[in-house]
From TrEMBL:
Superkingdom of origin: Bacteria
Stretches assigned to the AB hydrolase-1 domain: 46-268
SUPFAM superfamilies to which the protein is assigned, alphabetical: alpha/beta-Hydrolases
MF-aspect GO terms: hydrolase activity
Alphabetical UniProt keywords: Hydrolase
Pfam family, one: Abhydrolase_6
Entry protein name: Alpha/beta hydrolase
């Protein structure tokens, strides 16, 4: 049997083939660029901001539906320390995303997206409020909750006082586990609500009284999903804020935990906002 040596062009092709494999396995696709080609517009990245007494996992059902529809999604962690601090953190997340963004906020997360998006109108193309606060400058979450009757949150929460090694002190508040199901997530199955109560993120008490300094809904198109069975933010407050912001509003018979109990409805209104992005 005669064995022939590969020609120089053949050896070069083989080497290039190996190199190509090396390049392909190290390629990274950033959010907002998946599937983009010169002939296809880049879909906006959906950034989801949770509120108090929840965490990023509360968006799981919504994320699943949006990703299935082809949208890149980021479920951001909310520090829950105060509007200024939390908005600065969210803004840094948004600034590291390539392409247009749709910001979605649940509950207190609405306060955060309203502040974070100001000055980013070229990048943040739409705001979506899910059972959320839409505060104006000088307003805070506690004041807006108490502006209308209907919230039973005050009787359901408990404080945890803390002192840090540097001497700073304060108080966080959380929903008492035995009241969490009925207060926050009445239309969520009991076993799921128990898990949510156990994993809830407390919010700094001071955050609920810290005034907003920005209101991005004045310059960025807005959508609002109003929850009529909400025991945290009165439905009258949600309607008032949504109307004032001229938000495109949909109402749904759901609890405050609508992203968990009705992820289909939440994903639907987010997609409506995203489809307006050009």
């Amino acid at each position: 049997m005669r064995i022939t040596r590969p020609t120089r062009p053949a050896r070069l092709a083989a080497l290039l083939g190996v190199a190509a494999v090396g390049i392909s396995v190290t390629t990274v696709t950033l959010p907002g660029t998946a599937g983009a080609t010169p002939r296809q517009p880049v879909r906006p990245t959906i950034v989801l901001e949770h509120g108090a007494f929840a965490d990023a996992s509360s968006w799981d059902g919504v994320v699943e539906r949006l990703q299935r529809a082809g949208y890149p999604v980021v479920a951001a962690a909310n520090p829950l320390r105060g509007p200024a601090t939390d908005a600065a953190y969210l803004r840094s997340v948004v600034e590291h995303i390539d392409g247009p963004v749709v910001l979605v906020g649940h509950s207190y997360g609405g306060t955060v997206i309203s502040q974070a998006a100001t000055g980013l109108e070229g990048k943040v193309k739409a705001l979506v409020y899910i059972a959320a606060f839409l505060p104006d400058t000088g307003e805070n979450s506690l004041g807006l909750t108490n502006k209308f009757p209907g919230s039973t949150l005050g009787q359901a929460i408990a404080p945890v006082n803390y002192t840090l090694p540097d001497g700073a002190s304060g108080a966080d508040v959380f929903i008492k586990p035995d009241t969490f199901h009925q207060q926050f997530a009445a239309d969520v199955p009991a076993d799921k609500a128990r898990l949510m109560a156990t994993g809830q993120r407390p919010i700094a008490a001071a955050a609920l009284e810290e005034n907003s300094t920005r209101a991005a809904w004045k310059t960025i198109p807005s959508w609002s999903l109003v929850t009529t069975e909400d025991r945290n933010i009165p439905v009258a407050a949600q309607r008032f804020m949504s109307a004032r912001a001229h938000a495109r509003t949909v109402e749904i018979d759901a609890s405050h935990a609508v992203s968990v109990s009705r992820p289909d409805a939440v994903a639907r209104i987010v997609e409506k906002a995203a489809r307006t992005v050009r």
